[in-house]
Amino acid sequence: MSVVSPPVPLRPATWRDIPAMLAVERAAFPDEPWDEAALWSELASRPRRAYVVAAREGHDGLEGYAGLDLAGDVADVMTLAVHPGSRGRGLGALLLGRLHDLAREAGATGVLLEVRSGNEVARRLYAARGYQLVRTRERYYRSGEDALVLRKELLP
Length: 156
What we know:
It contains four helices and seven strands, in the order βααβββαβαββ.
């Protein structure tokens, strides 16, 4: 993994970001993207939900975004999406690191997420960040693919 260069600033998502988030969502997950209503619902669920976007100055649209559910001592990664044109430069790791920071700030001691069993790139990212398999949800996705439930313990 390479470091994002030049660095991509992360900022909290706003309502105005929804069209660009939807474009990233459709490009990143063409088989089962979230729809506009789902993104509106996620942002409406603040402060329990925290969403960040990666937006480079002068860049059309967003390069990625990620969201977290902050309920109790275990936070849940709701989504992490990087536009295919921005992949391979460490942006997923940058977004995931920010989610970890937000979880710690909210008092969480662990983070859970689900990943498609066939998403090798994401699985390598999560393994490199200390996530471990908790269980498999068989045929979880509409396509019939399994979901792997992963957990990471957060250090103070």
